[in-house]
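Internal ticket #5521
Category: modeling
Description: The requester needs a full-assembly model to guide mutagenesis choices. All entity lines are attached below as received. Residue total reported by intake: 878.
Assigned to: D.W.
Attached entities:
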Amino acid sequence: MRRAWLLVLPLAVIELLGSLLVRARVPEQDDLAAAAAHAASVLGPDDAVVAAPRWLDPSFRAALGAALGDRFDVALAAPDGLEGRAGLVVVSVRGHDAFGEGTSEAANRARAALARARLAEVRFFGRIRVQRFALEGPPEVYDFLAHLDEAVVSQSGRPCPRTTGRGSGRGLGEGPVLGPERFDCGGGDAQRVALTVIEDLELLPRACVAHRPGGSPITVTFADVPLGEQVVLHGGVHWVTERDRAGAEVTLRVRVGDRPLGELVHRDGDGWSSTELVVPDGLRGTSADVSFEVEGPPGHPFCWSGRTLGGAR
Amino acid sequence: MPLAESRPRRIGAADHLLGAALAAAYVALLIATSSGLGMARDEGFYVEAAESYAGWFRLVLDGDETAFEQATIDRFWTVNHEHPSLPKSLFALSWLAHERFELFPSDSVAFRFPGMVLSALALWILYVFGARVHSRFAGLFAACAYAFVPTVFYHAHLDCFDGPIVTMLTWVTYLYWRSLTRPRFAILAGIAYGLCLETKHNAWILPLVLLVHFLGFVVPSELAARRAGARPRVRLRPDWLLAFALLGPPIFVALWPWLWHEPLTRFGEYVGFHVHHVHYNTAYLGTTYFGPPSPTSFPWVMTLFTVPLVTVVLGLGGIGVRLRAMMPPGTLGLLPPPDPEGRSASADPSRTDALLFGTMLAPMVVLSMPWAPIFGGNKHFLAAFAMLAIFAGVGAARVAEAARQEVSRRQPRWVSASAPAIFVLLLAPSVHETEHSHPFGLSHYTWLAGGPPGAADLGMMRQFWGFTTGSIVPWLNEHAADRASVWLCDTIPTSFEMLHRDGLLRRDIRPAFDMASADFAIVHHEEHFNEVDYQIWMTWGRPAPVYVLTYDGVPIVSVYENPAR
């Protein structure tokens, strides 16, 4: 029994060596820069790019920003989903796979899309792996978020003019910031439609259209939209608002011309929600005006994104 | 002489000298490593409080007769009245001394010095406590094992209360223990308890823990011994509790001027603040908690992930060795036959092991409760680590004794070197991890968690208090344009200003209060601060930081540059 105490001695050696090993396995900054440069070089215009695990994201964004310059925008940094994407570039360390974390519907959808994808390329830069996956599924035809500046916004038939504002983050608990280009229906941010990035229920960034419910409905209309075969919608609410799961539901209604196409219903606690709306036979492949309205409790900081998708790739 | 003693030792002046030397060496180490550690958010609050209190001390020293009037007291002492004043008063006095005599290498050390001293005194107490209860080897190992827990080393640097309250709790526990067999120590225990109350509210639960020990272990054991014919060994009257009650509150009030004119009302306000404490955000095993219920496993897993594994294993081994001695009365039959080297419960009238075990468990159990406020980090149960360190000392002494016997059998000429060698080897992982953790003590996780990257994989808290701004100073000094401004995220202006006062940060680099017009903005990476990242992206239209401070590859602070500037 006395000798059993001596087993602590090799444990001390193991702990010491283990700590040194942890440090030795930290990826080099130069390798991350090279990996990001490679990711930038293989990144197609319809691709998404993510870091795995999530905690690598700030370092990866810094490296990718250096490689992409002005091509690196918030929509690329805060993807709303993989629907319609041609490819996915994953920069990972420690053997992590993309979307390995999270139990939300959004995480499950992303994992399912990745499971169906074909690994097109893999390269290593030191301890960093860069993979490019070719995604299946119908391609994107039209991205509403990317065309937000072409939209017409109105409230009860009264146009909401485009204005340029100055958003400024105010720190923890102060909520999302609207982009400088807004449609202003009067009444502050609650009555503005603009690009924003929310922190979803898993605290992930989601680039989306800030479009709050309440009062007279605000209508956002996109003219002459190529409809493809389906419309995929995403929606969510800023984490701090949604996390108590105490709010009422928010409904995003979509119309093609005067005809209802469908809706996305978001309940607090759903996290970043998604739905697909099938374009009716008579409208498939045509172009039409598409409008969005939001109904729900006043001021609920809802935002959405969406795109139309074509036939199978 | 065996390393694992079976009876309490006599402790003399040489032991106290060694304890004092340990504490002094620790303070010297803390001062030497302080400049690399940016001021944490709460440190900034306590600097503000200390400077205000220093103003009042100046009035008193100048003989101003209005100093004791309520209006004057409130003018100086209302700041940060949610915490008692003893540590902050010491910070203030240290600052006043530095103003006059330039005692310290920097302003931040002037404020931090009392916290360092109070934290380091725990080593002295742990050495003496461990040596008296078990052996000098055990006591020395306990002191060092506690000192080299990375988060203990971090908190011991600060002008905060978390290091000092461990010292106070351990000191009160020690004096209570002494008072059981030497009643005159009860008075000292009462005085110490008053100082403990005046240090931090963690003191509130200690009498309850001690009372459970006294009524549940000491009294029944003593009664049983007397029934068996033994002469009285401990006094059954709780003199210590009387001393706590009679001396604690007066000392508490006397040292806190803010209470003087309206003691009951303000005491109620103080208690109310802590009873209704807000929940902070903290990441734990992949979930960011922001409200009750608090995860029950939190203190246990955090202990496993932040205390070096060898210390934990030695501590658990020490608990195993002493298990018989900490069992409640009447339960010994549940255990295997006694270890022949172990001191039996009946031989120890003070039921020391039960006391150490109970005071170790108490803060962990309190913070395991689902209704416990969510704080994050392990600073609220550092006192458990102190007691765990004593058990680790017991375990280390067992390892050293086993090694000594093996060496004496195989290589007798090395036998005298075996104990020091074992001491160094068992402490080496702790020293290495602590050295490596600095100045990222709050971000450090041990090898068991996979180090900082493993903990990040597991979704553990990264940091809090925004102190890591201090670690981006070299980058800012090199890259920021003249008169550049920085939006500071979780660092308060006072803490940022201390970087100027210490001569670390270029004087022309200023804090910014408006993100949009700042030249730089920083994000301290905690999961719930992701929101701030996204705010910066939208404010400046760029999602790419220009610099990311990492620790073992894990992002700690992102620095963004305003593209419009």
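Resolution: model delivered.
Comment from assignee: The first helix of chain A runs from residue 8 to 24.
Ticket closed.
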